[in-house]
């Protein structure tokens, strides 16, 4: 009798754990990146996304980008945010895919990274794409340089014209 109660309780815990995972997630996201790098040294990437599950709950999420994992912030009901910065010189243009892992995916990621296995084979819960069109880092030529060249050109033509008039 005691063994059957234990088996029923174990089955109930297993079913609860199995059913509490998010299945068929629907994700809507919006993103922001730094567009003007003239006075900043880092480019910020921010993605805010809303997740609706077909069944179950999302739970804790972890973002994986370029082999690094960081926790995802909860900013509201079913709303999450992931952000990071990169130096403006090394920030690349284009789409950046951020893979989002649940607790099981995070555990598998840590296990694979410790064993030096391929981490791209770990299935993600879903992915979010952030587009970075590039950051403006100022004009190619500084205005002071252009002003100096123009003043030297004007002075040269003035002196050349004066020497022709005097001669």
From TrEMBL:
InterPro entries: TRAP-delta
Cellular component GO terms held in the UniProt record: endoplasmic reticulum membrane
Segment forming the signal sequence: 1-21
Ranges annotated as spanning the membrane: 140-159
Function as written in the Swiss-Prot or TrEMBL entry: TRAP proteins are part of a complex whose function is to bind calcium to the ER membrane and thereby regulate the retention of ER resident proteins.
Family: Belongs to the TRAP-delta family.
Subunit organization: Heterotetramer of TRAP-alpha, TRAP-beta, TRAP-delta and TRAP-gamma.
Name of the protein: Translocon-associated protein subunit delta
Organism: Phaedon cochleariae
Organism lineage string: Eukaryota, Metazoa, Ecdysozoa, Arthropoda, Hexapoda
